[in-house]
Structure formats: C-alpha cells, structure tokens
Amino acid sequence: MAFLLAVAVVLVWIVTGPLFNFSDTWQLIINTGTTIVTFLMVFLIQNTQNRDTLAIQLKLSELVLAMKGAENKFAAIEDLSDEELQELHEECRARADTTLRHIEGRKTYSAQDNRRSRPPANKTPTRKAS
Fold first, then answer.
1. Is residue 130's pLDDT more than 70?
2. What's the pLDDT tens digit per position in 82-114?
3. What's the predicted TM-score (pTM) here?
4. What single-letter DSSP state applies at residue 46?
5. Is 120 helix (H, G, I), strand (E, B) or coil?
6. CA distance 82 to 88
7. What are the DSSP E strand ranges found in 65-125?
8. Which of 75, 79, 113, 122 has the most C-beta neighbours closer than 10 Å?
9. What is the residue-wise DSSP string for 17-86?
10. What are the sequence ranges of the domains in the chain?
C-alpha cells in the first residue's frame, strides 16, 4: 500500500512537471519529499529491526531455558557488558576446542579399532575359473 502511494506521488509529480515548466521549485519539492520520507523510514526500519531482534532473543532464551543441561546464563546474554561477553566468548571457544579434540580422539580411536578388526586385504586379484 505504501509503495503504491509512493508511486502515485511520483506520477503526480511527473505529470505536474510541464505545468511548472520543470522549474527548480518543482524539482525541490520531490527532493525535499524523498529526503523527509527517507529520514522517517530509517527510524521505522530501526524500530522493526529492534522488535525482530527482541523476538528472536526471547525465542532463543526460551529454548535455552527449556533444554536440559543448558546453562541458563545464556538466556539473558544480551544484557551482559562487552567485557562479560568477551569472557563468555573465550570460555565457549575453550569448550568448543575441548569438544573438538575429544571428537578427533574418538575418530582416531575408532579408525584404529576398525583397522585391527578387518582381515588383511588380498593384494593379488583372483581369477574366476571359466
């Protein structure tokens, strides 16, 4: 609806061009109008983004609180200071590194276990009797 209104305003402006001999005032009207609309849209878009971000944070907080074993301190993480966020980031990175080493260790152990349980490969191809 807003887009159609904007298109209508521009069309009216274009049609009135010959009436005003495409004067500087005629051009100033559209320039001023678009500047004002752009200025107002910045605040509208910012408000919409803030609402969307808050909704996402609430959904994520609900998931964190609902998960068994999750740390509830993550539910209100957006309220932490920059220093607290940095400390938490370093803590999470350390936990991720530990988890990665644990997974890689399990893969190595599993690969070694698979090699031990497999029979040796026959390197010479066998021919079928015809």
1. no
2. 999 899 889 889 988 998 898 888 877 776 666
3. 0.50
4. H
5. coil
6. 10
7. none
8. 75
9. TGGGTT-HHHHHHHHHHHHHHHHHHHHHHHHHHHHHHHHHHHHHHHHHHHSTT--GGGGGGGGS-HHHHH
10. 1-70, 80-111
Task: Count CA atoms closer than 13 A to 49's CA, side-chain side.
Answer: 6
Amino acid in the structure at residue 64: V
Among 49, 73, 47, which residue's Cα sits nearest to residue 61? Answer: 73
Residue with tokens 């988890």: 99
What six digits make up the tokens of 18? 């010959």
Residue type, position 19, single letter: L
What does the angle CA 102 – CA 73 – CA 96 come to, to the nearest 5 degrees? Answer: 20
Cβ atoms within 10 Å of 64's Cβ, excluding its own = 16
